[in-house]
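Ligand: NAP. Inputs:
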Amino acid sequence: MSWSDLIDSCGLNVDTKLIFIGGGNMAGALIKGAVNSNFITKEDVVISVRSNESAAKWIKDGFSNTFTDNNEMLKKFPHGVVFICVKPQLFGSMVDQLEEGILYSSPLVVSIMAGLSTDTLAQKLSQSGYSHSIVRLMPSTPCLVGASATLICYNSLPHNDRLSLVTSLAACAGTCTILDEKQFHAASAVAACAPAYVFLLIEALADGGVLAGLPRKDALNLATQTFQGAAKLVAETGKHPGQLKDEVCSAGGSTIAGVRVLEKNGVRSALIEAVKASTERSEEMSRMK
Ligand SMILES: NC(=O)c1ccc[n+]([C@@H]2O[C@H](COP(=O)([O-])OP(=O)(O)OC[C@H]3O[C@@H](n4cnc5c(N)ncnc54)[C@H](OP(=O)(O)O)[C@@H]3O)[C@@H](O)[C@H]2O)c1
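Predicted complex:
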């Protein structure tokens, strides 16, 4: 279903727009993924950014409804589904600059900001007249290539199936998992922080290839394809990764010799501890805001 079909089935006005406050990397990836999947058209989208340079880029890309003034945008499009895509530390000042009650007619607000709970968001957004459900959407950088493991939670289920507006948008950028907000810190560690762990692992695997005599370019290509292929095998066979690991390790062979070194150096434990550290840091940061 396209955005226009969905808004109709959610009982919303036919010209309900997707309004993005912030048009940076993540908003750009979500918007472009949804346009490329034909879920939305460029005319469905309204964007605000801070600088004239960013606005000019969006307009050049065919997004004519681009603004550098949130109040002007929200007055012109008062009934849109609002996606807040600014950096979390700018959220408070951004809302403080909104005119009182300006979000009163918005049917749904969605935040992609890391670390800001629905309670914090609801409290702050109430000063702009918003009193419906708050949905949090947490994409990861692979959303730039349509391969995000996106997370979703909400403080109360948006009525009239309006959550489908968010899940359908997320589905254009990869997979989409709905969780209880209590699990959001841990899930963000595994889904949104862990791409950085995996980049480090790919780089290290390539370094190993270089040490063993491969040209850098070949080593990096092989390491990248190995991660892609292994992840695909887990996803498509449904086999436990431990079983797939056992299937590669022949008795007395070269693979088990390498696995032994990984275990001896605590790679398994390092990843477990990394997820724990990212989860705890995310909890700590949410308490600071
Ligand atoms: N990066 C990740 O892996 C990741 C994952 C999940 C969620 N997130 C969340 O995604 C959000 C955006 O991150 P990003 O990497 O896309 O940031 P970004 O590239 O820096 O984009 C931020 C955008 O916000 C605009 N902006 C700033 N203040 C504004 C205001 N008052 N009104 C309207 N627009 C304003 C900026 O405009 P200009 O372009 O003119 O400066 C820019 O377009 C963050 O909250 C982050 O926590 C990021």
